[in-house]
Amino acid sequence: MDISSMAGVATVTNTMAGSKTANDTSAASLNQAIDTQAQQAAQQVDQSLTPQQAPQEPSSTRGLPENVGRNINVTA
To answer: pTM of this prediction?
Structure first.
């Protein structure tokens, strides 16, 4: 065998090793992104299932009877 063919084999081997490393890195990044999205989705589902707090009455209607300040007469 001559040296030029051995250099070609070495080049192909190095190229393939570099491609595998790049593919492994891309797969790891993709898996991490999927895990992050799954965690965020789980948090949103948990938040949507928790009961909402009742809205607070505005300070201007506190202390008034229940029927005062609730309706507006628009047929003047």
So the answer is: 0.43
